[in-house]
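*** Backbone structure tokens ***
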Amino acid sequence: MDRRKFLATTGLLAASGAAAPLLGSCRAGDPYLDGASVAVKDAYRCDLLVVGGGPAGVCAAISAARLGAKVLLVDSGNCLGGMGTKGLVGPFMTCYDAKGETQIIRGLFEEVVDRLIAVGGALHPKDIRQGTEFTAWISEGHDHVTPFDPELLKVVYDHMCREAGVKVLYNSLFARPIMKGRSIRGAVLLTPGGFEAAEAKLVVDATGDGTVAFRAGAPCVFGDPEAGRVQPSSLFFRMNNIDTDRLIAEVVPHLPEFRRVNGVSYRCLHWRVAEAEAAGEWDLARKSVNIWRSVEKDQWVANCTRIHGVDATDAESLSSAEEEGRRQVQELMHFFHKYVPGCEKATLMGTGSVMGIRESRHVHGDFILPVQDLIDGVIYDDRILLSANSIDVHGAMGGPAGGLYMPITKDFYSVPYRALLPKDVDGLLLAGRCISADSAAAGAIRVMPPAMAIGQAAGTAAALALQKGIDPKQLDYSDLRPALLEGGACLDRQ
């Protein structure tokens, strides 16, 4: 199936009235390029500046520092981990091949998991099989996920960065790039002390939204420009004090009823959702709920809220989404208390301190990873990781509850180094969900295990480029490959 036929079949080419406001976020002439006159303190100098401390940014920083680079990692929040900690997103999705036989995302991801297990903060993916309470009773594409504790994940990231010699700067917003021609040479940050400059030889954009690349002048698109929409966002939350045995007993007899109809999932507790809907106590854009058992038996992660049309690069749009997410969480807690056996006394442990953003900007390079190559299982000559995470595009089938979910039928696919290199800007590498990929392809690699592998590759490439005194675009893959393998990456069939 070619890409256009695939997109047409799944509804990804459908028109949408939301196209105009969404695409406005990638307009030309961004004011940050105009060099506003402000007092900036000359504060930091480093080899590599990593902007964004999510899963990709942490792994980029650690991998570069372990290879000898002086690394400054900046994040807008008060902890590392991004979606996995601040966003309460969990579990880590699969790190195995499509058959569930071999772990293919290893390296720093595996080290993080092993360290979490050592402190009681995770269950090993080899022991977590599809169709169980740890996978929200989903089978396709959900074999070998990794339940983890987000609080302990913060501590693991702290320790790993400290051991590697990474300097971490929290509560620091990226304001604008420092440019020399088309080369980025650092960034102006807005810190509690004011505007401060961080000069760097190279920069990694791990913002998720491609903010650094965009403000440096790299081309980008927002969401899916062909369909004129962006994937909906979700506010994750965690619950405890759940009688897990009773909840499991409620769900298991209904497993034969799990189904997808026109892109809409009728899975966990869809029969209870129908009751609440009939009683006028359900107005969410879902027909079932996704709840995942966590490390502790009475703790569960909920991925149930859905907010459409969120522009994560626009403060007003994002602010409205945060409020709507919290409203939906309250409605869901009422649902669990009233309709779900075992959840009558459930306690809301907390909501994500940031919205779970599935999609915003996609930065473009000379090569744009196409979804068809994931479907076909293409193995690139310059591959930086293998993955079998499913193509998961929420909202793709039309209607508020619809979505595209396509498990991988090949053993795995690959992501090439080229997808980390933006057009029109030198000295910059991309890491995480903003890499050069089309919207549907990004729907597969946006989850945390591949994001961490991409981050490790970006940091490794940056360190090698620094050692050679060259731009990352000039780095030869014959130098990158052995360094990735030395770092534990899986690049070939085992």
About this structure: Confidence is low (pLDDT under 50) at residues 1-34. Residues 31-127+145-227+360-392+409-486 form a domain with the FAD/NAD(P)-binding domain fold (CATH 3.50.50.60). Residues 47 and 466 are 7 Å apart (CA to CA). Residues 315-339 form the longest helix (25 residues).
